[in-house]
Design goal:
globular; 3 helices; five-stranded mixed beta sheet
């Protein structure tokens, strides 16, 4: 494991529109029509940039990362081969879980996973086999819990001790989107989103926005402008609104590919692709006219401000621009993103003064930077 410390700079912008609360004026609304065009450098919002090199196992190299989470003591990574790697925070390899199959201790696909509060057990969600499997942090099989849900693909531990499951309505046999399970994985509550009936008619694939911040689970369904949180009473509560503004394509157009093509020049195909939140910032990625765009919302600015950074992510300004956009923010307000080692090398080789990086393997490199107060 090796670290490379770099100056990290950046700023965050986001816009939100929420219309389901009885008192919408009490909710934060991020209005895209009011966005200010501005390019942000990472050092404006965070400290130095750290690179963590993951220990290499010749028999088990880490492939393309499809999911990862950071805890107090561990970096947990699921790659495209459906292997789950547990690394210590310094990058040392701790354990590997690779148990594909249809047996009681096996999985077909890791749709999602969580680490329990003790950091002693990992729960894997396998929608293909409709079960949640409990492994020890060392990779030993503990228990398996069968589920009745047909397409659950997101899992989180709620602040009240229960579990939250999200189910993709496009493939669901049920009408509900969110299921609340007690600590013994018994169903105690279901939640239905506003747009559920439209979602299974869409002619394209989609993923939900499902994330955690400050020990609370938040989610946003596609075509619904409201970002919800799952409250302590197991119900959904409006958190904020994303108002895509005057150029947003009406929902009914999304159900027909011909309508999308016909009206694409009249409206922006504006939908959330990624969402992360910290104490002071909201990071938002969108697809607009088939191009990825980046926005940063400053919660505590007076007045709050939405920054449109266009098609460019945050740049680190470390002798050359290293693109950075957090795909994960932990409880300590630290941002993370994986980068391909060859891409990292290319960035640094283009710098006027080349910085030496010693990496003996092809594992993805974890970039991180702690947000400033």
């Amino acid at each position: 494991m090796k670290y490379l410390l770099l100056l990290f700079s950046g700023l965050l912008s986001f816009s939100c529109n929420l219309r389901e609360d009885p008192n919408p004026d009490a909710l934060l609304t991020i209005n895209f029509d009011q966005a200010t065009t501005k390019k942000i450098n990472t050092q404006e919002i965070s400290g130095k940039l750290d690179f963590t090199f993951l220990q290499y196992d010749e028999k088990n190299p880490v492939g393309v990362v499809v999911n990862y989470k950071i805890s107090k003591n561990y970096i947990i990574v699921v790659d495209i081969q459906q292997k789950l790697f547990v690394f210590k925070k310094n990058g040392d390899l701790f354990s590997i879980i690779f148990n594909k199959g249809n047996g009681p201790s096996e999985y077909v696909q890791i749709d999602d996973f969580i680490l329990d509060d003790t950091e002693e057990n990992i729960l894997l969600l396998d929608s293909r086999n409709r079960k949640i499997i409990n492994f020890s942090i060392e990779g030993k099989f503990n228990t398996s819990h069968q589920m009745d849900f047909s397409a659950a693909n997101r899992l989180s531990k709620l602040s009240n001790g229960n579990y939250g499951l999200y189910q993709n309505a496009k493939y669901s046999a049920e009408s509900e989107n969110v299921f609340i399970l007690d600590p013994d994985f018994n169903l105690i509550q279901t939640i239905v989103d506003l747009e559920s009936n439209l979602l299974n008619k869409l002619p394209f694939e989609f993923d939900p926005i499902w994330y955690q911040y400050n020990h609370t689970t938040f989610y946003k369904e596609i075509l619904n402008d409201t970002v919800f949180k799952i409250g302590k009473t197991n119900n959904k509560e409006p958190h904020f609104i994303i108002d895509f503004g005057s150029k947003r394509m009406p929902n009914e157009y999304y159900a027909d590919i011909e309508l999308i093509r016909k009206h694409s020049s009249q409206f922006d195909q504006f939908e959330t692709d990624g969402l992360r939140e910290s104490k002071n910032l909201i990071f938002l990625q969108t697809f607009r006219n088939r191009k990825l765009r980046y926005f940063l919302y400053l919660k505590n600015a007076k007045p709050p401000q939405l920054l449109d950074m266009g098609e460019n992510a945050l740049s680190s300004n470390f002798q050359t621009d290293i693109n950075f956009w957090p795909s994960y923010i932990d409880d300590n307000e630290t941002m993370y993103q994986f980068i391909n080692p060859s891409d990292l090398t290319a960035y640094l080789e283009a710098a006027p003064d080349k910085e030496k990086i010693i990496s003996s393997n092809d594992n993805p490199v974890l970039m991180s930077s702690k947000l400033l107060d």
